[in-house]
Amino acid sequence: MDNAFERIYAVVCRIPRGRVATYGQIAALAGNPRWSRVVGYALHHNPDPVRIPCHRVVNRLGEPSSAFAFGGASAQIVLLAEEGVSFTDGRVDLTRFGWKGR
Question: Which CATH number describes the domain made up of 2-97?
């Protein structure tokens, strides 16, 4: 599983400031589109939140994680807002702020 986590962290590190990606998107880019829950687990155990910006990962609807490991959903919203990402009705506009990573 460590190798999977390393692949997930490597993808998350590529998300630019001011952009977000979904759990499913990270899973697919890490090599297995069925790993959405694994992505969530990996991010919950993020060993270096300064270097691995897990706050930039939201669910498929653009919602922050209620289980955000580093202060809850409100902390995730604050971190994203500091990067210029805005929320409408509790969601990020994925068309506007979604990362088009490959």
Answer: 1.10.10.10
